[in-house]
């Protein structure tokens, strides 16, 4: 018997998840199957963490999942708005709660690495992951629907790895910057709280990280998928080595004549919230931004090599850049990451006060 061969969504929450968690132990319809699953689940549960941070717009969930990848507290999870918070809490399987530090992200892979101050933790070794075959039975561990808030166990779903495919072939169908290989699973992993969870085989060996909620734009169905660890390993190792990370306020001095977004011909969407995503609201005609090709509704992700989590952090980074310096902005547009180089005009040159017009082609594309 396969557990939930079709995707289930909706507000049926705690009771359904607790039921499916219990059912995972019974999949296979025999006592021997239940007995064989129990030690595997017991082995994996201490490596799974619950993550609580910021809530999103329109009541989006403020929680997700992750898993430990080192004995000293490194955590791998999905990059999402949940991490856009002054305080991100990681709760271990035994109920211990830690404030997490965001060490770095890779927006193309939609992953993030957190660090908590703990030692001697059970963890998955990323160098020792499994590569399953299509049709293999798998277990998905996550904080599905945020049921686990303390020392409760993560939800466990049993299913089959239906197929390995590429999201690259689905451009225009799924809105995601990740375009690489994925495992499609016939268990309801694509629901609030599951993102960042772990997919393992029946031996408890790590296979993949559960993906975020992903909807097919053509038929409104949801994709239950996970990203193979082999696709994530290099980026995670670079972040752990300190090659990619957000910069703390103390690491750079303010510029004498700081660069401003208006000097580049940009205005951000004003929501009244400092921690709102840095979406571009206006691009002024004949400005450096317009000439570079930036557009309204582009989401700024990186300034040079620094992560931009929100409008507040973007403005803070701008204060450290001199007016005459060229900068690189990495933005997300229609699920794709794009990089632009800009430089403000000399101080005596006039600045355009009119938004750039969109061409007919631009309007058609959007």
Task: Tell me briefly what this model is.
This protein is of the alpha+beta class and 366 residues long. It has six helices and 18 strands. A hairpin with a 4-residue loop joins strand 10 (198-201) and strand 11.
Give a written overview of the molecule:
The chain has six helices and 18 strands. With 366 residues, it is of the alpha+beta class. The longest helix has 14 residues, at 31-44.
Which key phrases capture this entry?
366 residues, alpha+beta, six-stranded antiparallel β-barrel, six-stranded antiparallel barrel, 15% helix, elongated, disordered N terminus
* Structure annotation, total helices: 6
Quantity of strands, as a count? 18
Largest sheet properties: 6 strands, antiparallel, barrel
Rg for CA atoms: 22 Å
Protein structure class: alpha+beta
Low-confidence stretches: 1-31, 169-173, 247-251, 357-366
End-to-end distance: 44 Å
**Beta content:** 25-35%
- Order of helix and strand elements from N to C terminus: HHEEEEEEEEEEEEHEEHEEHEEH
Mean pLDDT over the full residue set: 79
Q: Biggest sheet, strands in spatial order?
A: 1-2-3-6-5-4
Helix content: 10-25%
Oligomeric state of this protein: single chain
Shape, please?
elongated
